[in-house]
Specification:
Number of helices of chain A: 0
Number of strands of chain A: 9
Order of helices and strands of chain B: EEEEEEEEEEE
Largest sheet of chain B: 7 strands, mixed
Distance between the termini of chain B: 40 Å
Oligomer: heterodimer
Shape of chain B: globular
Number of helices of chain B: 0
Radius of gyration of chain B: 14 Å
Shape of chain A: globular
């Protein structure tokens, strides 16, 4: 059971907008920044969003992050076939004194 | 360019020990925090441990506390994970990762290619 909660799956058609939610608590999302990772099949995770809504250089602006209270979400607009991957949210947990991840959401582009 | 290369994985019997290494290059290793993150076959990511840039503070997941030890040698640009009393549930691909901070890092976030540890009799 992961500390952060994500739906196991999500799907959309090319060009559509998809949102992936991530739910936590006051000790993690509620008091620390949220990070989002994309993991393509057979590869290491790649940082998509840092500090709730910031995009590293090279990440398309189709990807955006937001946070409100103890929840966060990743939005992907203009869905493309290459977006098919597993997506994970992460945050520091002050009570556990460690980083916690969501269980991951498998995104399928139909 | 930033490179992180893990080594030391393999098959080990339950109860035995193993040490993973992560060789870093292409960045100022001694200025960045380092993490170990694992992924069991077909499962999600699980953070394992982290160490500050100078080794002054270490953090562990409850699942490995007291069994695993993270350390670093900044003179060799290398991160280590000493794993003792290994269990079947420790079977996973182990990734090392570098970040510019532990709790609220910025965009500096790089991962190695991963190294498989299989605990089996």
């Amino acid at each position: 059971q992961s500390v952060l909660t994500q739906p196991p799956s999500a799907s959309g058609t090319p060009g559509q907008r998809v949102t992936i939610p991530c739910s936590g608590s006051s000790s993690n999302i509620g008091s620390n920044s949220v990070y989002w990772y994309q993991q393509l099949a057979g590869t290491a995770p790649k940082l998509l969003i840092y500090r709730n809504n910031q995009r590293p250089s090279g990440v398309p602006d189709r990807f955006s992050g937001s946070k409100s209270g103890t929840s966060a979400s990743l939005a992907i607009s203009g869905l493309r076939s290459e977006d098919e991957a597993d997506y994970y949210c992460a945050a520091w947990d002050g009570s556990l004194r460690g980083r916690v991840f969501g269980g991951g959401t498998k995104l399928t582009v139909l | 360019q930033v490179q992180l290369v893990e080594s030391g994985g393999g098959v080990v019997q339950p109860g035995r020990s193993l040490r993973l290494s992560c060789a870093a290059s292409g960045f100022a290793f001694s200025s960045y925090a380092m993490h170990w993150v694992r992924q069991a076959p077909g499962k999600g990511l699980e953070w394992v441990a982290a160490i500050l840039y100078d080794g002054s503070n270490k953090f562990y997941a409850d699942s490995v506390k007291g069994r695993f030890a993270i350390s670093r040698d900044n003179s060799k640009n290398t991160l280590y994970l000493e794993m003792n009393s290994l269990r079947a549930e420790d079977t996973a691909v182990y990734y090392c990762a570098s970040t510019d901070g532990v709790a609220t890092p910025g965009y500096f976030d790089y991962w190695g290619q991963g190294n498989l540890v299989s605990v089996s009799s």
